[in-house]
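Record Arginyl-tRNA--protein transferase 1, 487 aa.
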Amino acid sequence: MSLVNLIGEQTGNKCGYCKTGKSASFGLVCEKMKVNVYEDLMLKGWRRCGNYYYKPNLSKSCCKLNTIRMDASNYEPNKNQRKVTKKFQRYLSGLSKKPNNKAEKRESIKEMLIVPEELYEKVKNAVMATVNALGVQFTVGLCVIKRNSPNREAKFGNYSISSALAINAKIKQKGEERNLDEINEILKNNLLQEIENSKWKIFSAEKGFINLVEEGILKIKIPENPRMSVDVETNPHTYEYELVNDDFSQEAYEIYREYQIAVHKDKPDEINPKGYERFLCKSSLVKEQPSNEYPFGLGSFHMLHKIDGCLVAVSVLDILPSGLSAVYFFYSPEITFLSPGVFSAIKEIEFIQKHLSSNFKYYYMGFYVDTCQKMRYKGEFHPSELLCPENYLWVPIKDSISNKSHNFLSLSGSSPTTNSLPKNPEMDFSNLDVTSFVIQNAKITLNRQIYKVTDLNPRGMQIVLDILAQALPVVGKNLFKRLIYAF
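=>
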């Protein structure tokens, strides 16, 4: 059982979505909560922030917060999501670059991307000679060279040139076709002439890429025939994600700090490691060890998103018995051009699909707020469902938003799949004697001892009954029995 401290209903708080109205919610604090208990709470419209759990009172709030989820096994990406994925793949392939902006790059990435001007000119000359031979007009965008990160150098050399891919794309735009290997071979021969007697040597050349090593930087045995080298990287950029425990790390905190300042306009002196740790690390969810059904375990995790081995974004996730719940996401402002919010969600959906089972299939996205533009993107992940805050049934979002006369307070009547269904019996209190139910089922703690309500004196019993009577309608009948209430 999970021990909870009831906070009760909080009203009159400033709305964090519209910034002008007021919100209300019922809250509790729990230091150690089992994942199945939290999942049950979530299915009643609750969310967590650190060890604080809350359920919005929609009738007393300006903005209506509706729990949203999606069955990842039936995910259908829309046009924008496909576009984001394609843009990201083009970035990895070197065919698109980050647009110029005024944001400073972190020093480590700056150093990693430096290409000597002398080498750039040699590559540019080789590209010009190649496009002239192929009858293609030269543009600067065809000269694509990048400095490899240190953890890639031993495998792929110090520099990677993907100009053959860019040239091939240019040719296709003209409605023509040329063999990519042929283009790369012409480019390689032109480059060999340019770098002859220089400190740069060709390490490998295959699949549209030419990798170079620089004397004095890395000692690698250069193959006699570069085209025959094996295990050649197919992308000038690499992407990978790693699932780790939700422990504090300085690297992740620095990105969080950058994100909060740049995106949410937080003041620097308002951000500190302790606040970050309390908010997004060391969750109160009790970890469950890996099993055959859940090889990663259950509980709270951080999904680390890395480009070229460098951490650029973090997804804070709760992995629950029925699916993955997205808690928070933050990223380095320098990758804003890649639409990281959408892309990370796609990666999280792919994670669910990779581990899909009859139980583990849902992607929980927190709250959908129809009146908040920044939150409406969640409804674009199809097929999504909203939790009806009155009958506690899942309603297809397409039905919920087609007619908004319900003001998002009662959704089940808007859909033919739910309009004739009875209220979730777990949340139906119409024929229930609340006082008797609480007396029979409540477990409370006083001075670390567990008592029943009837163990208290009459005055104490009435106080506790009044408080617990408020909790029952927001947690549900079955879950009410499984919680222990601290007083």
